[in-house]
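Protocol step 4 of 6: structure prediction from sequence.
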Amino acid sequence: MTSELLQSVKTDSSYRTTQGVIILSTFLDLTLGCLKIGVGWIANSHALIADGIHSFSDLFTDLVVWVFNHIGRQAPDEEHPYGHARFETFGTVILGAVLLGVAGALIYDSIIRLMNLDSIAVPEWPALVAAAISFMIKEWLYQITRRVGEKTNSALLIANAWHHRSDSLSSVIVFVGVAGALMGAPWLEMVAAIGVAMMIAHIGWNLGSRSVEELVDTALSGEDMEQFKAAMVDVEGVTGIHSLRTRKMGNDVLLDIHIQVDPGISVSEGHHIGEWVTRALINKFPAISDIIFHIDAEDDTYLEERDSPLPMLPLRAEVRNALKEAWCDIEFADDNKKVTLHYLDEGINVEVYLDRKVLLTESHDASLFKAELIESSSKLEWITKISVWYG
């Protein structure tokens, strides 16, 4: 079996497993929501009803997880060349917003009830049984959802697992609150409901804030950046790294890198070094899915700035024309086989290549010839160095 086919089988298997967990979550959330609201209504338990509303909110979040997980796993296309992973991140933002909204509503209602305890009926014992059942089921659901999320590397599924955990812990708080109310402290049930809401709000804020950071292309941690740089400078031919930019897209990491190499090497060798850097990073950090590298002969960060005060140096055609005019009276200047330009140190280093047969000509003096080239081009401010080679 080829590696591509094997990867495809693994992907399809992960998708089926994920969808199975989501379907199971949806069924159990519907069942528990009906159970807690029904028993809460019959047993006069506001905290249990609030917990039931929390379970019904899970139905919506399960739907969000299913939809965005389905979209996020689609392959890149013409309109989304980087893939669809950001849809999953967007889904996680929605999850966080829903949790915050549910928490706010529960806190408001619980405070109102806390201020009117005399008119609130005392809950009955069936509410304790419903809370205990809810805890056991939701804790079990948290465990299997988290394991599948870690196995498939799905941040959205892991986020939903923690939503299940919040529901199981909220059932514990409801159990304590109802028990306290049955023992003569009715206010304890309202406090329990507020505690559940605060827990939901905390989880919602954490999920939403992390996802928003990703949507606005927040860079990875400094520790991650240092690990990337260490892996790159180990590649032969790399003399420096600058302008390293990182961002996340779902579970994928994307990098933009400026790689500094020896200015004397060929363009193809510099590019090949960049390919080696790419291979080294992808092999060492599987989360990296896309790398854009730029090969530099020096650290030219100052030139990359949009408002850089330095003027742009001329391109080859303008340089050749200016040199031809400056050297028009110098013998052998037009006999060059090749002129190489090196854009370094805010100027241009010029290398002139002549046929070695020129050295056999009695009228040619290599030292004088180079001096004449330098003297004649002295008015060209962007020329910083001239070298002459024979071969």
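Step 5 (inspection) to follow. Confidence is low (pLDDT under 50) at residues 1-11.
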